[in-house]
Design brief:
The protein is built from four helices and no strands. The model has no long low-confidence stretch (mean pLDDT about 75). The protein has one domain: Orthogonal Bundle (Arc Repressor Mutant, subunit A), CATH 1.10.10. The chain is mainly α.
């Protein structure tokens, strides 16, 4: 699930549609988004994958942006 969210840019709805429990998806996405600030506090490191945290994964942290769970 985390790989799909971080590397695959899947949304909440995509992950639920893939068969993951809605409550688990909501929790994992919330925890991942809340931990985003930690990346920016650490100096840049070596890029070891096609998708590196830092340049390739940017989430606005000043506006407290979070992936929103869409209820149907």
């Amino acid at each position: 699930m985390l790989d799909l969210y971080v590397h695959g840019d899947h949304s909440f709805a995509d992950l639920v549609a893939a068969g993951f429990p809605e409550a688990t998806v909501e929790r994992i996405l919330r925890l991942t988004d809340l931990a985003e600030y930690k990346r920016r506090q650490y100096p840049p490191g070596t890029k070891i994958s096609l998708r590196a945290f830092g340049r390739d994964r940017r989430l606005p942290i000043t506006s407290r942006w979070r992936e929103q769970a869409t209820r149907s």
